[in-house]
Write a sequence for this structure.
């Protein structure tokens, strides 16, 4: 038996995902592989068995994939919960001191399938009675790491970055002026074609992992579909259906 995992998330955490997959292989006594995800239909086509994905595509795929576990970041801010924040960053020399100061500024985000960089910002704007026109520009640029570089070099004024990723990245010349969240953190999911017994075995293996200090992860914990209802609510408020 071979289990193929795919990562659809930031390369910042690639080492942690690789270690997780290797641990599953050791615990289950099976061959495992970690690939870079190309499209979410790979789950349905049977090309990948499990994966590390954002909460937003998860709710769109619910039923086609099953949530297994999610990491708990090992910092007091997270309160021992499988959550993260979207931290709003600007350059050190930018005049903004809060999100409210960013009207008319240029904004970049990672991509439209991201909750941390995209949907949570739309949701925040909607609660303010605003739309992306609040910004002079609102552009997708790729991974959070790309957003950080483009804010640091002055191409854009601001961005919202997954707080877990931000903790692990070089942020010299940048400062956080606010946070949105908490939000349910990205789950490890299993494709529907996997037997429930195998899904449970993968979950148990990941829960047995020791803390992974390099990624500041304390542990994995079980998550269920309802844990991602806040993302569904955000979609409704933003007028976007799942």
């Amino acid at each position: 038996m071979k289990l193929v995992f795919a990562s659809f998330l930031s390369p910042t955490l690639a080492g942690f995902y690789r270690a997780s997959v290797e641990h599953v292989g050791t615990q289950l006594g099976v061959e495992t592989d970690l690939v870079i995800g190309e499209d979410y239909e790979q789950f349905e086509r049977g090309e990948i068995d499990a994966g590390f994905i954002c909460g937003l595509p998860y709710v769109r795929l619910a039923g086609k994939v099953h949530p297994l576990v999610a990491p708990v970041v090992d910092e007091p801010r997270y309160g021992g919960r499988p959550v993260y924040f979207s931290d709003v960053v600007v350059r050190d020399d930018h005049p903004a001191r809060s999100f409210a100061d960013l009207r008319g500024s240029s904004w970049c985000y990672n991509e439209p399938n991201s909750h941390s960089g995209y949907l949570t910002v739309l949701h925040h704007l909607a609660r303010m009675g605003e739309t992306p026109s609040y910004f002079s520009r609102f552009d997708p640029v790729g991974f959070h790491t790309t957003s950080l570089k483009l804010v640091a070099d002055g191409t854009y004024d601001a961005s919202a970055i997954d707080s877990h990723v931000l903790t692990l990245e070089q942020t010299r010349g940048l400062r956080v002026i606010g946070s949105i969240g908490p939000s349910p953190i990205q789950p490890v999911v299993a494709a529907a074609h996997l037997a429930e017994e195998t899904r449970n075995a993968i979950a148990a293996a990941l829960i047995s992992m020791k803390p992974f200090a390099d990624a500041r992860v304390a542990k994995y914990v079980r998550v269920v579909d309802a844990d991602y209802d806040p993302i569904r609510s955000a979609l409704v408020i933003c007028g976007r259906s799942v």
